[in-house]
Amino acid sequence: MHTASTQTPSGAGPDFDSLRHRLSGPLYEPIDPHYAELATPWNMAVFTCPAAEVEACNPQDVVESVKFAAANGLPVTAQATGHGVASDMAGALLIHTRALDECTINTDTQTASTGAGVTWKTVLSECEGLGLAGLCGSAPGVSVAGYTSGGGIGPMARTYGAASDRVRSINVVTGDGALHHATATDEPELF
């Protein structure tokens, strides 16, 4: 584990050590060996250079990261696989969600509960032999969260509709760093 101090003179930028101590997962800065791995998106033609990266291990890591970014005036971006990466990450705090990879299939309700880092490949593998399938796109390496929050228009949309129309609930961290559980009836505006 890298333990170098990132104390900065006043006005020289955020003190990432103060965030690092509040996280369960690691935080990487450009000097860290794993920084390039997380900063490199699926489309390697897009260059990204976030100020730092958090590899979130749980929802509280996301909460702490968003609160820190807000307190320090940093833009925030999140990615699981890098398929929907934007090139304007310069100076942003990147929250990488690949470790949030829980996936549970409920055969009674025919639903999947997925963490922010789960890909469609995982969902499809979990559904194998159950007579179920997810409303995924054509690329199984794309994250469920990114695909669905972008609308989720795939090959099965004409028959079953957009994946986003089938969401029953979502756990989301808002810009103020609050974790919410939203459904159509509980926090419907956020949902």
Rg measurement, Å: 18 Å
In round numbers, the mean pLDDT is 88
Shape: globular
Report, as a whole number of angstroms, the end-to-end distance.
38 Å
CATH class bucket of the largest domain: Alpha Beta
Number of domains: 2
Question: Structural class, from secondary structure content?
Answer: alpha/beta
Low-confidence stretches: 1-10
Q: What is the helical fraction, as a range of percent?
A: 10-25%
Q: Which band does the percent of strand residues land in?
A: 15-25%
Strand order of the largest sheet: 1-2-4-3
CATH architecture of the largest domain: 2-Layer Sandwich
Number of helical regions: 6
Under CATH, the topology of the largest domain is which?
Uridine Diphospho-n-acetylenolpyruvylglucosamine Reductase, domain 2
Describe the structure.
The chain has helices at residues 16-20, 35-39, 59-71, 120-127, 144-149, 157-160; strands spanning 27-28, 52-55, 76-79, 93-96, 103-106, 111-114, 169-173, 179-183. With 191 residues, it is an alpha/beta fold. It has two domains: 16-96, Uridine Diphospho-n-acetylenolpyruvylglucosamine Reductase, domain 2 (2-Layer Sandwich); 103-183, Uridine Diphospho-n-acetylenolpyruvylglucosamine Reductase, domain 3, CATH 3.30.465.10. The radius of gyration is 18 Å and the shape is globular. The model is unreliable at 1-10 (pLDDT under 50).
